[in-house]
Every structure is written in structure tokens, then in C-alpha cells.
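User: Hi! I'm working on a homework problem where we have to compare a predicted structure to a textbook description. Could you give me the structure for the chain below?
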Amino acid sequence: MIGNKTYNNVINTLKNIGSYHYNITTTTTGDIHDIDLEKNTLFPLMHINPINVTTGRTQLNYSFQIFIMDLVSQRADWTPDQIQSAAFLNNEQEVLSGTLQTSIDIISIFRNSVEQSTFNINDINDPVYFAEQEFTIEPFTERFDNLLTGWVFTLEVQVYNDFQTCEIPVPKTEGGNGLGE
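Assistant: Happy to help. Predicted C-alpha cells:
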């Protein structure tokens, strides 16, 4: 039987995906304003922004904004053959292409339950994290002060929860569960 997954389990799984993915160097969690904009972070970056948790009959649905971003590099000496946009003398198109593919990889892991065992889940044949919704992946450029470019999408991770009352940390009463029965 699959045990209930906590917020910590879900966040740690997302962080592990970021750690194992070859095209992500740093993974952070928290409010969008927690992203290190001083260029001390090694990029590409995956940032996990918690949005909310909703309940279903037998599941919890954790919603996160997932940011996949990288620095756009600029070179004054680049020729139009070396860049995608001669007007800006930068590699923005290449950064958008790479970060989009990384976003799709993350969605694929949850949508298809592929390789979940790699990310600290016990049995690939018994996946415990699901994402069944359709995704809108939105590009951003220059959203931040240091030419970060990438994509953001909302990931709703569904996990089983049986809503047991036997293990609620309240005093037990004789013949009841301690909740006024």
C-alpha cells in the first residue's frame, strides 16, 4: 500500500528532480522574491514556488509554479552568425529552447510516472506522484534585473491521502478518538 505523502515528500522529490537533471544546476524553493538575483546562483535554475494545496476524496493536490531559467549572455563582438537575434546580440532564443525542453522533461516525469524511482520513490511500477492536467508553459524574458530568461508553468502534483483519523495527535478517550465522541 502506498503511504500518505507529505509536503516535505513532494518538495524533496521536486528538488531531487532538479538535482538529477543534467540541465539544471541549482534548485531553490520559496516565494518568487527568494530567487537570488545577485548572480551568485549557478544557472540554469529551477525554482519551486508553492501556490496551494487542495483536497479530493482520496488525494491531496499540491500546486506549484515551476520556473526554469537561465542567464542570457551578451557579447558585443558576436556576429549575426553566432547569435539568434542580431538586434540584441545575445543567445536568448537558445536559452528559451533549452529551458523549454527542461520544462517538458519535468512535466513528462509526472505525467508519465517515468523514472520516478530515480527521485527517491520506492517502486517505479507503483508511482505515487501524478500530474494529469494540461499545461500552459509561459515564456518570460527580462522579468528579472539580470537578463534571466526561461519558462514558468503550474504543476499540480496529485498524491494519495486516506485522511486517517487514527493517527491525529490528540488525546484518546475511552471508546472514542478524543474528538468529542
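For your comparison, note the following. The helical segments are 7-20, 92-111. The first helix runs from residue 7 to 20. Good luck with the assignment!
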